[in-house]
Design goal:
By secondary structure, this protein is an alpha/beta fold. It has eleven helices and 22 strands. Strands 1, 2, 13, 14, 15, 16, 17, 18, 19 and 22 form a ten-stranded mixed β-sheet that branches. An eight-stranded parallel β-barrel has the order 3-4-5-6-7-9-11-12. The chain is elongated.
């Protein structure tokens, strides 16, 4: 991977014709170090967030050894990169029979989640009623504090979870309970509520539990979306987990786990796009919702960005712009507002930050538009960060303008 001092130097050297992905290894190192040192339990990286091998290898180098996988290809990828020196957790609650069978028999996966009796039967049948299964029942949890809710698709309600927990306990070598508070969760109370619901459900089922997995949802920072410091989330989890253990027989032996994705990798990635045309305050750029900017379209995320003009001065006044992507679909639209200099024009490059999560993995190649095949690394602070010295959200110049 080519390495450059900063985004400007990379653009000047590459002059990319297609969207160019930037990788900030130092930002990833800080995020991984924070989670591994501060979270009071086992950290599983959610591979779906960014499965690039250079990202996975960097996380492994920082000490991450546990991975949340959502599909058989993710299982295969992790095993190819790390062999047996990684513990894989198949945490998608609806898996194909082939995926279960190959994960267990070929790739030594022992951890599986489920939210129905039907899925339990599939797991038991495809593993030949294995006696070494670690099974996690996923609860449906209110996602009131999340920007993107997941509760309508996954999870079992607390009432129906009681008989399911009893049945799973009978078959599992180790029983876990898990949940997801929703993507980009903006308040630590979400975890308090969820853990209390889990504790009440376990008590109603009258079963012993070996693992509590609080899932993902840990937030990153975006313009207009500033969460509390991450340590407040960890403190809330630790306090509620302690209360849970104290009220349970054998509670001291329960393992605590989490599945961060966005918060671990968002800051480490960015994309450089090029303006192909300007119509008033509408910029037509060479990436969009069918590429790495899906979250700027449907969920209407606003990303930090800056102009990377390779020659000439820039206007000091900023204007709010909207973007159209390169495809011929009018849904390829990003409302913003994205603030850029008023003289932004065709040929200008723009860096869009916070795309280490759900960025490059979303690219489709629709209409033949695709990013550069290789990413480049830069040694420069992210445009926005939650991993400053105080671990509180800060901006390192999201509206900064760079000109030669």
């Amino acid at each position: 991977m080519q390495r450059f001092k900063d985004a400007y130097t990379a653009v000047e050297a590459v002059q990319p014709e297609n969207p160019l992905f930037l990788f900030r290894p130092d930002a990833l190192s800080k995020a991984a170090g924070f989670f591994l040192s501060q979270f009071p339990g086992t950290v599983l990286y959610a591979i779906k967030t960014n499965p690039e091998p250079y990202v996975l290898k960097a996380l492994y180098a920082e000490g991450v050894r546990h991975f949340d996988v959502a599909s058989l290809p993710e299982v295969v990828l992790a095993r190819k990169l790390f062999g047996k020196d990684a513990t894989l957790y198949f945490m998608h609650t609806v898996k194909s029979r082939q995926a279960i069978r190959e994960a267990y028999h070929t790739h030594n996966v022992r951890h599986f989640s489920l939210d129905s009796e039907e899925e339990l039967m599939k797991i038991l049948q495809e593993t030949d009623n294995a006696k070494d299964l670690c099974l996690y029942v996923r609860l449906a949890i209110p996602n009131n504090y999340a920007e993107l809710s997941l509760t309508d698709k996954f999870g079992i309600n607390a009432v129906d979870a009681v008989p399911l927990l009893k049945k799973v306990r009978w078959h599992a070598a180790k029983l876990g309970i898990c949940f997801h508070v929703g993507s980009q969760c903006m308040h630590p109370d979400a975890y308090r509520i969820a853990i209390r619901m889990a504790r009440k459900t376990i008590r109603a089922a009258g079963v012993s539990v070996d693992m509590l997995d609080v899932g993902g949802g840990f937030p990153s920072v975006y313009p207009g979306m500033t969460p509390p410091p991450l340590h407040t989330f960890f403190s809330a989890i630790q306090e509620e987990f302690a209360a849970m253990k104290s009220g349970m027989k054998g509670g001291d032996n329960i393992q605590l786990m989490c599945e961060p994705g966005r918060a671990l990798v968002a800051e480490s990635g960015a994309v450089v796009v090029r303006v192909e045309l300007r119509k008033h305050e509408m910029l037509y750029i060479n990436d969009g919702t069918y590429g790495s900017l899906f979250d700027a379209g449907m969920p209407h995320f606003v990303f930090p960005l800056r102009l990377l003009r390779t020659n000439g001065d820039v206007a000091p006044t900023m204007l709010p712009f909207s973007f159209f992507g390169p495809t011929c679909d009018t849904l390829d639209f990003m409302k913003g507002p994205f603030y850029l200099p008023e003289d932004t024009a065709e040929g200008d490059y723009i860096e869009i930050g916070q795309l280490g999560a759900y960025g490059r993995i979303f690219t489709t190649g629709f209409n033949g538009f695709a990013p550069e095949k290789k990413a480049v690394a830069i040694k420069e602070e992210p445009l926005m960060t939650v991993f400053g010295e105080s671990h509180a959200p800060t901006m390192s110049g999201p509206l900064e303008i760079i000109a030669a």
